[in-house]
Design a protein that fits this description.
single chain; 382 residues; alpha+beta; 4-stranded mixed sheet; 3-stranded mixed sheet; 10 helices; 26% helix
Length: 382
Amino acid sequence: MSDKRDYYDVLGVQRGAVEDEIKKAFRKKAMEHHPDRNNGDKAAELKFKECAEAYGVLGDEEKRRTYDQFGHAAFERGGGPQGAGGQHFDNVEDIFRAFGDIFGGGAGSGGTFGEMFGGRRERPGERSGRSLKLVLDLTLEDVDQGVERTVSLKRQEHCATCAGSGAKKGTSRTTCAGCGGRGQIHRSQGFFTMATPCPRCNGQGTTLKDPCAKCRGAGKETQQREITIKVPAGIEEGVQLRVSGEGDAGDPGAPRGDLYCVVREVEHKIFQRSGADVITEIPVSFSQMALGDEVEVPTLRGRGKMTIPASTPSGKVFRLRGQGLPTMDGGGRGDQLVRVFIEVPKKLSERQKEILREFDDIEQKSAGERSFFDRIVSYFNK
């Protein structure tokens, strides 16, 4: 069992809270526990990270739905939240990059969120790359075994001509005269020192006199890339895999963004999923249900055998132990649930009809003189 606090308790919201309530609660808690506002207190910083981790799950509709169903266990497989759909923050700057947009800044820059507490912002000209997101379609067979998937995507890379500087070859960027290279204009407002991006250099701290002809001063260009993603066995729909450093390139000297892969299960022709269990239905004949038989059933890993006892009613569900999917916490496998039902033949030979009529006559005689309706009534009056 996880020792983490319930994410709803961390943010102080009810389970039925709407998105705006969750966002408002996170903003309030982040202001309260920000380490710069608490003189670098380590306990406050831990609470600050805890709040960000909670919002990383509850602020995302798919992850919140997964958390409501499975709790912390849904995000702890594979060594921590970052490997299974939640977000793990090693430092405060990670939080700025992830949630800066909530406080008025852009994700990846820290924005006003970092600035209003004294400027834990990346240095001018060192903006991190943008994180990317894609949907990863998986079959139940993929989930059962775990797979490696190679995906093709377009992302921003440093311009090969100017090495990402945006300046014409042989030239360089110059320090912005408007902000002195800081990239920000500071203004005092009561308790806070507010910082806004310099309008002259757009917060970069430098300006271009001669832009690169290839990228027109952007410093980046779009390229096609192939990325290999390792998908752990037992992963569930809606879980988000984080592939660090595979997003867009940042400014020179700044880290790349990340790639987030949202798992989506492809509908299976035979099986349905219920957590770690899989469910299937198989048709059998009346004689097999009445007399009993050993039948062959499909499983995710081939074919298996199952015994049907005599006098089995239609709709009976059998459990094949360990024939389901791996559990997300690594605690073993689920089961396969097999529902059997009588398959009525579409065509009968005259001999088959004769045998069935004879069987029906015997049934009628064994039931005595009572009608079918009388037998139904007596059943409910027991």
